[in-house]
Amino acid sequence: MSRVFPCAALLLLAGVVPARAQQEDVQAWEQLNVVVPVVPRVRLTVEQIARAGDRLGGIYTTEYGGILGWQMRKGIELGMGYRRVGFHNLNLAPDEDRLRQHLVVTSGRFAGRFRVDERFVAHARGVGVRIRPLLRYNLPVGRHRLALFASHESIILVNDTRWGQRAGYERMRNILGVAVPLGKALNADIGYLNQYRVGRNGARPQMDHALSVQLTVNLGALGVAVLHD
Predict the structure, then answer these.
(1) Distance of CA 219 to the CA centre of its chain
(2) From CA 103, how far away is CA 116, in angstroms rounded?
(3) Residue 136 half-sphere exposure, CB side, CA atoms within 13 Å?
(4) What is the Cα–Cα distance from 157 to 167, expressed in whole angstroms?
(5) If you ran DSSP here, which 8-state letter would residue 4 be given?
(6) Residue 12 host element (H or E)
(7) Cα–Cα distance between 100 and 105 in angstroms, integer?
(8) Above 80 in pLDDT, residue 17?
(9) Alpha helix segments (H runs only) across 53-211
(10) Residue with more model confidence, 92 or 62
(11) Which 3-state string (H, E, C) describes 13-74?
């Protein structure tokens, strides 16, 4: 049991080894989730995200949205939702509307999510589809719900669009952190996030080193994991 977390951490850190000629950036990522029960076995998660980086001149992404989740059975959730994504400062990508569907499975210390995004850009044709498998391992430390965690997410673009999406493996996100209970209904995930963007279509690869802070307010909702985005 005590060997599982170090092994998971080493696998994640293997993706952190700098590649030659890559760009690097220091960033800060913040996420706030408020989880509200709607009816038995259904919950609504309202989300807010902000990301800032040195290379992009400060806050470069904001996201607002929500996702409705249905607990099909204990530890298994099917969800769908919407998110509005804005890009700022030196991030010149067009703003997006996203539809999302996911399947979340929680079993003991493991949690996994398979998410599908459909991305829309105003005044441009084409729907960009991407898939995002995520796996997380939690290692309890003592009492009071304190835990270490390690997670990995891959982002794969399914198709090309006229507004810029190109099919293929785009990036990975790895996190090592600590889950800290701040109250009966408030939890924080604090950790080091490493994002590696593959060099594609002539662009240089990029590695982002980020402080990741996620706060979750859980107002008596179902016991299915709230995972990073």
Answers:
(1) 21
(2) 9
(3) 25
(4) 5
(5) H
(6) helix 4-14
(7) 16
(8) no
(9) none
(10) 62
(11) HHCCCCCCCCEEEEEEEEEEEEEEEEECCEEEEEEEEEEEECCCCEEEEEEEEEEEEEEEEC
| pTM of the full structure | 0.87
Listed in sequence order, the residues at least 6 apart from 57 whose beta carbon sits closer than 8 Å to its beta carbon are 89, 90
| Look-up of token digits 């980086």 | 53
pLDDT band at 158 (very low <50, low <70, confident <90, very high): very high
User: Angle 127-152-200 (CA atoms, 0-180°, nearest 5)?
Assistant: 50
**Among candidates 111, 156, 157, which has minimal Cα distance to 134?**
111
Residue type, 35: V
Q: How far apart are the first and last CA of the chain?
A: 27
The conformational region for residue 41 under phi > 0 = left, psi -120 to 50 = alpha, else beta, is left
> How far apart, in whole angstroms, are the C-alpha atoms of residue 54 and residue 50?
14
Name which of 156, 154, 148 is nearest 129 in CA terms.
Answer: 156
Q: What is the largest CA-CA distance in the chain?
A: 53
Contact predicate 45/67, CB 8 Å: yes
Q: Which residue, among 61, 62, 47, has the nearest Cα to 115 in the 3D structure? A: 47
